[in-house]
């Protein structure tokens, strides 16, 4: 049986299996709960990052990875002079299911609130909701996401830099 001219059905099936085995997709969404105006955001210099995990299950590796990535990326993205604290509360973290991902595909997700607080006054000037997810399928996708906490934390920090501060984070070389 021929499905496509010149391609036996088994070849088409094999190509489909390869496509699923190599598939992956990332998405990010940042919503302003309390948007900071451009003049104010240009004056912000994040001098401290605090991360809390408000999920039913504790995730110490996630907390450490997110704190490290934000502490590394955000001070370089916030180029102002006035010191601010960034408080991040993780409200959802969906871990991978390796068996499911290999056969059906799976998604991991990291969601949290990001708050900017003036160091001098303690006043909150802005709040954002960040949702970062990654969908993959097959063996390659499962292997790529073996360190999901680190991968999502890097993406979360990138989203904060790009969407809150309007700056693409500097990549390590």
From TrEMBL:
It comes from the Bacteria. Residues 1-26 form the signal peptide. Keywords: Signal. PROSITE patterns: PROKAR_LIPOPROTEIN. This is DUF4410 domain-containing protein. It comes from Denitrobaculum tricleocarpae. The lineage of its organism: Bacteria, Pseudomonadati, Pseudomonadota, Alphaproteobacteria, Rhodospirillales.
């Amino acid at each position: 049986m021929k499905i496509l001219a010149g391609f036996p059905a088994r070849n088409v099936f094999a190509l489909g299996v390869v496509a699923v085995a190599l598939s992956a997709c990332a998405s990010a969404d940042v919503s302003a709960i309390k948007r900071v105006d451009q003049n104010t955001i240009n004056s912000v210099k994040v001098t401290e990052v605090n991360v809390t995990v408000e999920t039913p299950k504790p995730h110490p590796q996630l907390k450490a990875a997110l704190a490290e990535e934000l502490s590394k990326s955000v001070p370089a993205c916030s180029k102002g002079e006035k010191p601010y604290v960034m408080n991040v509360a993780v409200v959802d973290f969906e871990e991978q299911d390796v068996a499911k991902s290999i056969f059906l595909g799976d998604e991991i997700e990291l969601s949290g609130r990001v708050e900017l607080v003036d160091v001098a006054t303690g006043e909150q000037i802005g709040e954002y909701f960040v949702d970062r997810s990654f969908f993959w399928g097959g063996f390659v996708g499962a292997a790529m996401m073996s360190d999901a906490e680190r991968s999502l934390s890097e993406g979360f920090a990138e989203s904060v830099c790009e969407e809150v501060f309007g700056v693409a984070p500097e990549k390590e070389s």
